[in-house]
Fold this protein.
Amino acid sequence: GAFLSVDTYGYVAWNQDSDTNIGHRTDILAKHADYLAPMLYPSGFNKGILGIDDPSLEPYRIIKASLLKMEESVEPVRLRPWLQYFKDYAFSRHHYNAREIREQVRASDDTDCSGWLLWNPSSRYDRGGLINTEIDLIRYPK
């Protein structure tokens, strides 16, 4: 058999009861999928979430808090979030570079996620943040 992964908008983590009225009920999807892949791009979050004026400037907090929130309702599905690897489009329009990439990866690793995925609409992954000499090769085998 094959594994089934379902992408969801990341913001639905914060609106589990209403699913933001888009049909992304993670509690239901989790019953039929091996993995949920929430698109947790900090640029896609509203101003004021977690008391943050510009969510794109605090990728660690946004990613970790969202994953912890999702873990409340999606057992036993595995979470494998999509992370932002592109320029902020909603707030200060700053580029996501090595620091922001590493912060998102660290937030994912600090939860019980089953890895992570990166998204860049141009398929350009040249902003750094992917090479780390401290990667645990036991956890991430080749």
User: Anything to note?
Assistant: Residues 5-119 form one domain.
